[in-house]
Amino acid sequence: MVSESVIRKRLERLEESLKRLRSKQKVSMEEFVKNWEIQDIVLREFEVAIEACVDIASHIISEKGWKPPEKYADIPEILAEKGVIPKEYGKLFKRIISFRNIIVHEYLYIDFKKVYENLQKIDELGKFALYIENFLEREQ
After folding, report:
1. Segment 50-64, tens digit of pLDDT
2. 25 with 74: CB under 8 angstroms?
3. Interhelix angle for 122-139 vs 4-22, to 10°?
4. What does the alpha-carbon distance between residue 73 and residue 98 come to, in Å, rounded to a whole number?
5. What is the DSSP string of 28-78?
6. Which domains, ranges and CATH numbers included, belong to the chain?
7. What is the dihedral of CA 131, 137, 138, 139, to 10 degrees?
8. What pLDDT sits at residue 43?
């Protein structure tokens, strides 16, 4: 059985990270690419926000007894296949997870202009919470 409390705790942390990320959206690209402190905040909050989404998705997949993902990139496909998120959003969510992998594993090659571009589109990540809220409502 899917634990609503487990999901809600992660949704709260996701929202906190999104709030922190939004607070950095007004910084100019020029300032962003030369200010390592802002870069560090943004990278960390992206990592936490995306990890919260992955944790929520993994919990749902596990508790529903669905086929487990072999890798993180499989998670969006499973959620889309089961109707938790729309198929089109699944494609975007897969790119979001890839972005997390770059932050975590390929940190030597981060393009801060691309990070800034992703920061400007943070509401796309926020849609994940809406889809999960809808899923929880259907589960009750």
Report:
1. 999 999 999 999 999
2. no
3. 160
4. 7
5. -HHHHHH-HHHHHHHHHHHHHHHHHHHHHHHHHHHHHTPPPPSSGGGHHHH
6. 4-139 (1.20.120.580)
7. 110
8. 98
pLDDT tens readout for residues 83-117: 999 999 999 999 999 999 999 999 899 999 999 99
Task: Tell me the pLDDT tens digit for each residue of 84-93.
Answer: 999 999 999 9
**Single-letter residue type at 131:** Y
For 97, residues 6+ apart whose C-beta sits below 8 A from its C-beta are: 50, 54, 72, 73, 75, 76
Indicate the pTM of the whole model.
0.94
CA 55 to each of CA 59, 97, 109, 115: distance values in angstroms, whole numbers, following the listed order: 6, 12, 25, 22
CA distance 109 to 80: 30
Give residues with Cβ within 8 angstroms of 71, minimum separation 6: none
Over residues 13-28, mean pLDDT: 98
For tokens 């494609």, name the residue.
Answer: 91
